[in-house]
Design brief:
single chain; about 200 residues; mainly alpha; 10 helices
Length: about 200
Amino acid sequence: MARPIEFDRGQALDAAMRLFWIRGYGASSLEQLTHAMGISRSSLYATFGDKRGLFQEALQLFSGRTQSILQREWCEAEPLATLPRFFSATILKVPKRRAARGCLLVNSVLELRGVEEELNQQAAQELARVEKVFEQCFSDAQARHQYPRRRSPDALAAQTMLINQGLRARCRAPRTPEAIRSEIDLACALLDLPRLASNHEPLS
């Protein structure tokens, strides 16, 4: 008879995701993972299969949380306001140490390309799911006649994702909140998006 799991699976996965986010897939050893998760190696294998399986779930968790933030910031009346609010919520209104990690999905695509192609593809697919929400913002705005139809929503979403990745890469270097906010405003101007509202000032 199998022994019951004696730890909180969600908390353990969250801890693993944070370690992968900080160190990357390759540099996160099983010893470091089990220590961060507070479980034994046998429990890791029994619950997640192996390090690869654990990482795959961590990517899904990160992607799901990112999409949840987009849904939380969704502005029904002005869909395009969702995107500046998303940039603020995930870059400005987080602790500096978290912003400096960049994005786990982007980091993983860069780290694993040509090394772990299966995991690289999963990270890219999770990014594509986030990009789909960007696309919905532009599609809804065009349907409401709030944004010109010169370009298709999918092309606009691809450009937004490119800018999103650039912003997160920039945050990996020391940046002041003022500099980050200025870059977000520039990104919004390039995309013809509204500027950040005053109530989305960075946290101290």
